[in-house]
Amino acid sequence: MTTRTKIVIAVLVVLIGAAVVGANIYYQRDRGVQVATEAIRSRDLEAIVSASGKIQPKRQVNISANTMGKVTRLAVEEGQRVKAGQFLLEIDPRSLAGQLERGEASIAAAQSSLQAGHTAVESANINLDLARTNLKRQQELWKDGLTTKESLERAQNDVAGREADLRSREQEIKTRQEQIKQEQAGLATTKYNLSQVIISSPMDGLVTRRNIEEGETAAYEAGVHGLHPEVVKMMGKMLIGHASLKNLSGPLTIADYAGQSVKLGFAYYLGFLAVVSVSLGVLNLLPLPILDGGYLMYYLFEAVTGRPVSEQWLARLQQGGLAFVLLMMSLALYNDVARLLGLH
Fold first, then answer.
1. How many of the other CB atoms lie within 10 Å of CB of 218?
2. Is 157 found in the same domain as 237?
3. Gap between the Cα atoms of 336 and 5, Å rounded
4. How distant, in Å, are the alpha carbons of 51, 61, 286, 294, 300 from that of 304?
5. Are residues 244 and 317 in the same domain?
6. Does the N-terminal or the C-terminal CB of the chain have fewer CB atoms within 10 Å?
């Protein structure tokens, strides 16, 4: 190897070593802080945040119908923002409006009958005063021997008849007054139901879910809890005359509501069956002969007195209970037919 060749190799080795050292120094040096610049302008700050969980509203209101009927107008969609008082939907008011007109006409007729009853009482009072005056005159004539015993007895019988007629007229007045109270209670219920056919938004917010479509039947959603006292309370009101017997429903109405609940869905149908079952169970526990509640009363009587109810009284109570139950069933069936014919 010549001297020139050796020199060239040595130079290449030095250059390669210098390149390695220079590259190492370059990549290990401090590059400083990088700054991004942009022209100043106004714009919205946007950021995408990814997180798992569920968004809960600060206030949530579940809106349901207070009366049953067909939805004729529906003015809201899921995801729509609404204002407080904004119209949401309307339930067909025609049936309730007809019921209201019939109730008002019934009250007017009852008031007219009551006025005629007052007139009859006044007439009965006048007739009674005349009969008493005639009796007094006959008694004076009898003392003087100027009349017959037959005439005196006729005058006494006339007074007794007039008094009985007056009592009958006064009882009719009380009956008509109670009838008017019942009709007014039913009319107030109808007015309230009619006021509930239009449902408005109770607050500003967003509609998150809508469970009904226009043309479907809206059902009153009543929980099973609290049903027991309501059934007994309504029965008590009907017995003392504070609630109309028209509230009593039978198998036709139950079948109608069952059909409507099926249209709303299987869950509504099961809920309706639960309400009917609990209602029948509560009614079966009423202390009436022939029902289970009646037998409980028999056991209570035996526990208190130490002796069972006699066979004779047991037969009488059973007959009376059967007659009462048949009467209530007949009345309920009559109300069903009257509703179908539009008489109620």
1. 23
2. no
3. 125
4. 69, 52, 19, 15, 6
5. yes
6. N
For 313, the token pair is: 């009284």
| Residue 223: predicted pLDDT | 34
Output phi, psi for 82, to 5 deg.
Answer: -130, 160
Letter string b/e over residues 158-181, b meaning 16 or more CB atoms within 10 A of that residue's CB: bbeebeebbeebeebeeebeebbe
Q: How many residues does the chain have?
A: 344
Collapsing DSSP states into helix, strand and coil, what is residue 131? helix
Domain boundary among 179, 196, 213: 196
pLDDT of 22 reads 61
Q: What's the domain range around 145?
A: 93-196
Instruction: Using alpha carbons, select from 176, 179, 175, 165 the residue that is nearest to residue 114.
Output: 176
Q: Which two tokens stand for residue 271?
A: 């809920």
Shared-domain flag, residues 251 and 316? yes
Mean pLDDT of the chain: 78
The per-residue pLDDT for range 178-221, each reduced to its tens digit, is 888 888 888 888 888 888 888 888 888 888 878 788 887 775 54
Q: Which of 193, 169, 61 is nearest to 118 (CA)?
A: 169
> Could you tell me if 89 and 74 are in contact, meaning their C-beta atoms sit under 8 angstroms apart?
yes
- Residue 255 domain flag: yes
CA neighbor of 80 nearest in space, from 204, 226, 224, 238: 204
Residue 20 within any structural domain of the chain: no
Q: Which of 161, 196, 231 is the last residue of a domain?
A: 196
Tokens 């009969």, residue located: 131
Positive or negative CA dihedral for 223, 229, 235, 241? negative
Name the β-bridge partners of 168.
Answer: none
